[in-house]
UniProtKB/TrEMBL annotation, chain A:
Keyword Cell inner membrane belongs to the record: no
Record family assignment: Belongs to the leucine-binding protein family.
Cross-referenced CDD domains: PBP1_Nba-like
Keywords tagged on the record: Signal
UniProt-listed InterPro entries: BCAA_transport, Leu-bd, Peripla_BP_I
Pfam families: Peripla_BP_6
Signal peptide: 1-26
Residue ranges of domain Leucine-binding protein in the record: 29-362
Name of this protein: ABC transporter substrate-binding protein
TrEMBL record, chain B:
The keyword Transmembrane is annotated on this UniProt entry: yes
Source organism (scientific name): Candidatus Proximibacter danicus
Protein name, as recorded: Branched-chain amino acid ABC transporter permease
Subcellular location: Cell membrane
Pfam families assigned: BPD_transp_2
InterPro entries documented for this protein: ABC_transp_permease, BCAA_transport_permease
Family from the record: Belongs to the binding-protein-dependent transport system permease family. LivHM subfamily.
Length: 393, 304
């Protein structure tokens, strides 16, 4: 026993001192741990982020920052314990240079500390929990999408401006859901009633009956993935769509939900930081190639995955492949030297985006497809509400 | 308010009847063969996938569902004859281990055949909208589920209570050795019961598929509820399974709807919003604990 302890202590010392001896050599490849929800009701989201990320790497000829890219894909099954195990494997055994991919904020909060302890940069392509935007902000966490509240804030403002004063909010009972409610109510001032459901719930009969009895004039729901698909279908089947106007953040009104629900979603307003009809060269190339590659329109999740790949590429290029010097790498990530498919954005002090948010409406496009159309800009250069609580070291 | 309670009662009834389809098979297998079959939920999943495939191939919802029920029943019979038959004489732990392995095999097999993404199964167009029901509208498809569930429950009750096969089943549930001694072919009876249970699973899967989602792992979450139902109802009893299912369905639905609202009347909003859904989720387990406390053998024990 004692011998084993001595040996492991020596080994640990060696392991710690080794990186110091070999300071800042250029790496010969970039390893990215892509951990996301690829099975179960939330799988559509993870698959879209993955496909977007892979398309980005393909556009860069299989390289990230001029180095061959190795993307290790793992499935968290939307379970925190599985996510932690898979992250441990990617960080400790594979020693990845970057982590990305997590969809759900509760998993992000479970995995985050592991990546931070391993001093590995986490580039979130979706989950943007308020915790990591405020007091628990971390130099090793970057979010290339949005802070969770943002899209809900944009919708709250629109619903407020349109004069609705009696709104029911439906969201799952998890950190992302709490962020949704606080985001929406930051800009919506009228009466509201919150309905919390179980994360992953698929039958909304009880909630719909309750909503019918409340008689709101508008309903705002944030139910990502399969939850939203079922909710909208059951909402329409229950005949509620005749009296109650539906509003949602872009998460619950993008291609994955539209494809499953179809025509009943026509006319629904939603908020986003990106849309497939954004008119810039990067976006046109992304949308056209995504359709060609996967045979479907990209969702906002796919655009975020694509941008995550572009951010890593730009940063690795900036530091000329020297991934060991974490400080320099961090500066390169913060500088964000790439053109996003959403147009321009920059990172705030808490490593979350400052960007524009737009209003979209679901309508038929020229080819007769049911899809989103951009209407107007709701917020310009909008930051999140937690940035001032962040004292980034 | 009465309208709300009426609608919630209908929702509870619909959920309860579907649980009954699952619990009926489970309770008979458990009661008669003294066999814990964790793979019961997998038959529900396979049934739903078969229904999705058959509906897509035939273009008719009714034909698709019937094909799925028949196909799953055959699959259940084959499963019983090849694997499960060998487990009857083993202890419960071996049965749990073996049938848990079956769950894993079924999940991977379905993943290999149909892929990771949920399969598409929509209600027939005519039933996808709401119907007016004395002052409020209710989804037509949920009404169909209630109708199908009621008919099947009555049919099952008649078979078990009034026919010769039903008499064998009841006899088997209360004393297996004595039934065998009376010269009844228990082996064939077991296969028959198992196939019927599998068919009911498939019916539940096909009816719930359009409402929920046809996906890998859909059987596990509902299996837990089915076990709660048969423990409440009394193992081996069809009547117990029916009463237990309806109790669980109604308590779960009403709890989810009314608890948050009730809590809000005497607790601050934030606390109520957090406590309500959490409490509603454990309500049926409280119900089970209460039943076990006062009636340890369940409400209608088969072995009197």
């Amino acid at each position: 026993m004692r011998l084993a302890a001595v040996v492991s202590a020596v080994a640990a010392t060696l392991a710690v001192s080794l990186p110091l001896g070999t300071s800042a050599h250029a790496a010969d490849k970039v390893k990215v741990g892509f951990l996301s929800t690829l099975s179960g009701p939330g799988a559509g989201l993870g698959v879209d982020i993955r496909d977007g990320f892979q398309l980005g790497v393909k556009h860069l000829n299989g390289k990230l920052g001029n180095l061959p890219a190795e993307v290790l894909v793992a499935d968290d099954q939307q379970k925190p314990d599985v996510a932690k195990q898979e992250a441990e494997k990617l960080l400790k055994r594979e020693k990845v240079d970057f982590m990305t991919g997590i969809v759900f904020s509760n998993l992000m909060l479970a995995v985050g500390p592991q990546a931070f302890d391993a001093k590995t940069y986490y580039i979130s392509a979706n989950a943007g929990p308020s915790q990591y935007a405020g007091e628990q902000c971390n130099p090793f966490f970057f979010n290339v999408a949005w802070q969770n509240d943002n899209l809900h804030e944009a919708m709250g403002k629109y619903v407020q401006d349109k004069g609705f004063r009696n709104v029911v909010i439906v969201t799952p009972n998890y950190p992302g859901g709490k962020d949704a409610v606080s985001g929406f109510k930051r800009f919506y001032q009228g009466k509201s009633e919150e309905v919390y459901t179980k994360l992953g719930q698929l039958d909304y009969a009880a909630e719909l009956a309750q909503i019918r009895a409340t008689k709101p004039d508008a309903l705002f729901f944030f139910l990502p993935g399969g939850m939203g698909i079922n909710f909208v279908k059951q909402f329409v089947a229950a005949g509620l769509s005749r009296d109650i106007q539906l509003f949602a953040p872009g998460f619950s009104a993008d291609e994955d939900v539209i494809k499953a629900v179809g025509a009943p979603m026509l006319g629904m307003f939603n908020s986003s930081h990106w849309a497939h009809d954004f008119n810039n060269p990067e976006n046109k190339r992304f949308v056209a190639d995504f359709e060609k590659e996967y045979g479907r329109l990209p969702s906002l999740y796919a655009s975020q995955g694509y941008d995550a790949a572009m951010l890593i590429d730009a940063a690795v290029r900036d530091v000329k492949g020297k991934l060991d010097d974490k400080e320099v790498l961090r500066k390169a990530l913060e500088a964000k030297r790439f053109k996003s498919v959403r147009g321009d954005f920059k990172f705030n002090n808490n490593h979350y985006p400052v960007q524009n948010y737009v209003l979209r409406v679901i309508s038929k496009d020229v080819q007769g497809r049911v899809t989103n159309k951009t209407m107007s800009t709701t917020f310009s250069n909008h930051a999140d509400a937690y940035a001032n609580q962040c004292k980034m070291k | 308010m009465t309208q709300l309670i009426l609608e919630q009662a209908l929702n509870g009834l619909q959920f309860g009847l579907m649980l009954f389809l699952l619990a009926a098979g489970l309770t008979l297998v458990f009661g008669i063969m003294d066999m814990i079959n964790l793979a019961h939920g997998s038959l529900y999943m396979v049934g739903a996938y078969l229904a999705a495939a058959a509906v897509a191939a035939s273009g008719s919802f009714v034909v698709g569902v019937l094909l799925a029920v028949a196909g799953t029943a055959v699959l259940g019979a084959l499963l019983e004859m090849t694997v499960l038959r060998r487990l009857y004489t083993r202890d419960h732990l071996s049965q749990v281990l073996a049938t848990f392995a079956l769950i894993l095999i079924a999940n991977e097999a379905v993943r290999m055949v149909w892929g990771d993404q949920p399969a598409l199964l929509n209600p027939p167009d005519a039933l996808s909208g709401p119907v007016e029901l004395g002052g409020f509208s209710y989804p037509a498809f949920r009404l169909l589920i209630i109708a199908v569930g009621t008919v099947v429950a009555l049919l099952l009750y008649w078979v078990v209570a009034c026919t010769r096969v039903g008499m064998w089943v009841r006899a088997g549930a209360s004393n297996r050795e004595m039934t065998e001694a009376l010269g009844i072919n228990v082996k064939r009876l077991f296969t028959l019961v198992f196939a019927a249970g599998a068919g009911l699973c498939a019916l539940a899967g096909a009816m719930l598929g359009p409402l929920l989602a046809v996906q890998v792992g859909m059987g596990e979450s509902i299996l837990i509820l089915a076990f709660v139902v048969i423990v409440i109802g009394g193992i081996g009893s069809i009547r117990g399974a029916l009463v237990g299912s309806l109790l669980v369905g109604v308590v779960d639905t009403l709890g989810r709807a009314l608890l948050p609202w009730l809590l809000r009347s005497f607790l601050p909003g934030e606390v109520a919003a957090n406590l309500g859904p959490a409490l509603a989720a454990i309500l049926i387990y409280l119900l089970m604990a209460a039943v076990l406390f006062w009636r340890p053998a369940g409400l209608f024990p088969a072995r009197g």
